[in-house]
Amino acid sequence: TLKAVVFDLDGVITDTAHLHFLAWHAVAEEIGITIDEVFNEQLKGISRMDSLQRILKHGGKEGTFSDEQCLALATKKNAFYVQSLASLTEDSLLPGIRDVLADIRTANVKIGLASVSLNAPGILRALGIQHAFDFCADASLIICSKPDPEIFLAACAGLNVRPEEAMGIEDAPAGVEAINAAGMLSVGIGSGLNHAGLQLDSTRELTWKCLTEFWAS
Ligand code: B16
Ligand code: MG
């Protein structure tokens, strides 16, 4: 039986991907690198420092900055990003999320969070849904970013369920891979997630009925 549903945050619960993009775009421009929304797809689910490395590589500047300079760039990006989070309210939940969280709770199935964002606790508070989760994996304790299964395994452990008893919901290719590698059933939101066990076009389709049918199939 299904015992837990583990959610990704950015792109599943709320759309902070665009805010991440704007912050990285500003920092990248300062060092002469231009990134666009297409490239930004590759940064979804990737940790802050790993994202910076991908941007440097994209701009042909891999290895040009010291560790200290990289940390300063990442800190600057985060300052821009945190500023932009002030625009988040309870209305920033993606369509259907409030209902599906309520329905999972009513069914007595546990709810977990597997976001690699160090800002996740603040974002959940801004959205007013911090109490909807039985356990949120602590991103600061995670060594390997998605597609490594570490954060999903940490969420299952914190919820006290086995991965085979849980499903994960993701919008990023790296995230879907992480769920699959954890041995959980995967639900992908959006296009291009061919490795997901169930692919949905948007969170609007993410209903409890749809999740239970997928689990039973
Ligand atoms: P932070 P998720 C991820 O969140 C984002 O998708 C990714 O773009 C970001 O770099 C990462 O969090 C780290 O975020 O800089 O706030 O620690 O998709 O795992 O919820
Ligand atoms: Mg995501």
SSE blueprint:
Layout: E1 4-7, H1 17-30, H2 37-40, H3 48-58, H4 67-84, H5 97-106, E2 110-113, H6 120-127, E3 135-136, H7 150-159, E4 166-170, H8 173-182, E5 185-189, E6 198-200, H9 208-216
Parallel strand pairs: 1-2, 1-4, 2-3, 4-5, 5-6
The protein binds 1,6-di-O-phosphono-beta-D-glucopyranose and magnesium ion.
Magnesium ion (MG) binds at residues 8, 10-12, 44-45, 171-172, 175.
Q: What's this entry about, in short?
A:
The chain is α/β, with parallel strands linked by helices. It contains 9 helices and 6 strands.
Helix content: 40-55%
Q: Unreliable segments (pLDDT under 50, ≥5 consecutive)?
A: none
Question: How do the helices and strands follow one another from N- to C-terminus?
Answer: EHHHHHEHEHEHEEH
Major sheet size, sense and barrel closure: 6 strands, parallel
Q: How would you classify the helix and strand content by structural class?
A: alpha/beta
Q: What's the total count of β strands?
A: 6
Q: What is the first-to-last residue Cα distance?
A: 12 Å
Strand order, sheet with most strands: 3-2-1-4-5-6
* Average pLDDT over all residues: 95
Q: Which cofactor or ligand species appear?
A: 1,6-di-O-phosphono-beta-D-glucopyranose, magnesium ion
Supply the number of helical segments.
9
**Morphology:** globular
Radius of gyration: 17 Å
- Beta-strand percentage? 5-15%
